[in-house]
Amino acid sequence: MERFVSTVKCLTENLLQKHPIDYDQVIEKLFSEISGLEDFPKIPDPKLEECAIQLWNWAVTKNVGTTISKNLKAKVRHVACSLLYCCEPENPTEGVMRKQILMASKTGRTWLDCKNPQMADHFLQFAVKSLETLYAQLTSRGDGAADITSSKGDVEKDLLRILSCQAESALSQGNNHEAVVYMQRCKDMLLRLPKDTAYLSLMCYNFGIDTYNLRKFEESAFWLSQSYEIGKMNLKYAPGSEVQAKVLRFLATVYLEWDCQRFQEKALNAVSIANKECMSASGLYLKIRILLRCGASDDHIRAGLNEMLECKVSLEVCLSTVKLLMSEDREVLAFDYLKRVCQHFESSPDLGTALVLHIELLLQRGKELLGKQKIEDIITGHYTGKQLSPQALTSLHVMLWDKASKHFEATNYSEALQWYNYSLSFFKAGQMEPNSAKLQRNRASCFLQLKQLEKAKEAIKEAERCDPDSIFTQFSVYKIAMQENNVEKAAEAVNAMGHLYKSPVTSQDGLLVSENAASNLLSLAAQIALENEQQETAMKALESLCENSKDEAQVLTALRCLVRLVLSTIEKSRDEMSTPCRNVNMDVLLPYLKMALQKVSHQSCMSVEQRTEEATWFRKIAWNSALQCESCPDRMRDFFVLSYQFSQLCPPDRTLLVGQKTCLLMAAAASLELCRKSPHSTQTEELTQALEHIQICWEVWKTLKASGSFPMDPTDTLLLLYEFEARAKLNDPKVETVLESVLELEHVETKMLETIAALAMEPPAHFPLLCKKALRVALSLHKKQPQADLARCSKCVHSLIKLSLPSGVSEVEAHVLEEVWDYYEEALSIIAAAPDDFPEMERLWLLTRAWNTGILLYSLAQYPEAEKWCGLAMSFIRHLGSLRESYETQMSGLYSEILDRLDKAKKNLIMEE
């Protein structure tokens, strides 16, 4: 026990010194220590008792405010009270016992407030035990002393309070019988404690409320009856007639909801006594409820209604009673009573509320003619000094508009207009307010349906004057413009609607109620325009909707509509063979598809299936649009890129990947085509884009190849060609790697190598070495063919010689001449193999270039080489056809002259040496 005492003392000191944020942990530790004790072992330690008092006082100081929770306060009191009982001496004094009673009863009460009756019972029993001990001690002293008698009275008063708490605890645990036993003991004590009559009556009333809320009507009726009976036991200390009447009204309500037919008499008796105790509007109203529920005769109910009027209840209660009568199908009684109520309150400023209710009930019962008469009477009164209150007038307007709206929906436009006109009668001429504008818009809608265009225009003109910055007003302007076929005015209205879209819409017309009113108005505007074959206006409305709406599903629907409209226009232009018009429409289509891509990409509310459906639809549109742009590579590229981007939003499969590959190939090809047609300053951007498409396409192609074989597919060839061209024109050194990849292909076509050779030298590219390498491989492949294509062989040789021949003095080098000589020998071998198939002009070109090379070498005093090349040129003469004779004569003389000069030059050179 020493450890226990030491721990409690230490924790108590900590609690008294701690900051508020640290209370919870210390209290929980203290509570845990006490909870671990079995019963309350006797520990006669003054320090422990001091801890108990300190903890109790600390909890009392925390009772004000919300420093700690109710539950923590209960635990501190629990600990303090438990410690006090642990320190109890064998023969406790009166003072000790009074401390125990105080602390135990208050701890029990606190646990009850925390909805923990089991814990409360524990301490309430301790309190009763201490009270009994104290009472026995006081009784043993004798009856003479006044202070002893007073003390015994205090004990009895404390006992009554504790017993009532025990009753409350028992009831909260569902033990009604036990609660009744405790309460009976309390009642028995009231003769000695009359001042607690009101307290005990209120306790029973609260028990009645609690059981009623649990729908335990029998128990509730018992406790409410007890409350009333206890209140009658001592009139001097009773709760008062108002409270007693309240108890009885509640008792009557319990009987009403329990079983009105079975307890009809009890319910009526209770409410009648309540009304005698203290007449009140709620009591009179309750009596009518009971009579109606019990199916009483009209005479009985009429008597109750008369009683209400005689007791001067408020107009509000009277009108609630009228509604009650109507809900119970006592229509005749209701209208009769309402008529009397209106007469009774004729001078009241709130009479309008009754008149409006009368109209509402007439309309509900389908008595429109009588309702209209009442409305016309109110309109007459409105202009003769009998205006309705603002609240009543608002209710009437709502009713009139609702009636008009229903007629409008039923296409009964004349009737709808009449109801709107009734509402208009209450507005002053020139009155400026949004409701007036709304009313005029609704009237205009009716006029439009009735084909009364001029009257509709007048109504909208008034609406514009009252509320020009309303999107609804502009929509009405739009509708009229469309009926007049005024395209310009309709376009202006659509633009205005677009500008007003972002303004907050505080309310909607009765005819156009919608969560997204502005979006729906623009959508409706587009629909009206299409019905009137005004495609351009419809597109403006849809574009405005797309720009402003936050409903992405709605935007995608609008974009689909826009795309279809543009495609229909393109189809017409194709029929009319109007290419410029088709190109313009393609440019219009592109931003719609880009917006669709953005919406589908960021659509968070779509299911996977919905996203796939949307992406697939727009992907196909982009694909088909690209195919129609064969003469416009820039548009073609953009559409193919969009088609690829849409496909990325779909679940991948083999077919989709093939489509992606084709899109990227076509986009790359289009970018290269644009580069060829672009000025040098913009080529880099186009080439970079092409390269990006090519790189992505390689990845897609690798994935495809991994899924199966693709025999005879030219993708590898095309990608390498496109990549070679892009890198060559970007002067990218990786172009050599691309050529190596081409040469590593399993089947390299000579045509591809010839194309690469051409691309290597196509400006701005300049890679002569790569060009020659490709040509040499191509020539080699040509020669390996069973039947070589000599024309193409000669072109390869031609290109090789052209690339290799020195063009000036600085390029004359032995290894270069040797390389070119080899090409000439190749050419001669081709001529020898098929002299008839080698073009004559090509032979002449070879002759000329060899001769010129010899002359160049002669000028450089390289005489042996000069003689060699001139001799080579002469060897081609015999291969000339029709030109041989003329060239042979001319060349022979020149050659002889050259030889003579060479001999002289050689002799001079020897003499100089």
TrEMBL record:
Signal peptide: none annotated. Residues 525-559 form a coiled coil. One of its GO terms (biological process) is meiotic cell cycle. It comes from the Eukaryota. Keywords: Coiled coil, Meiosis. SUPFAM superfamilies: TPR-like. This is Protein ZIP4 homolog.
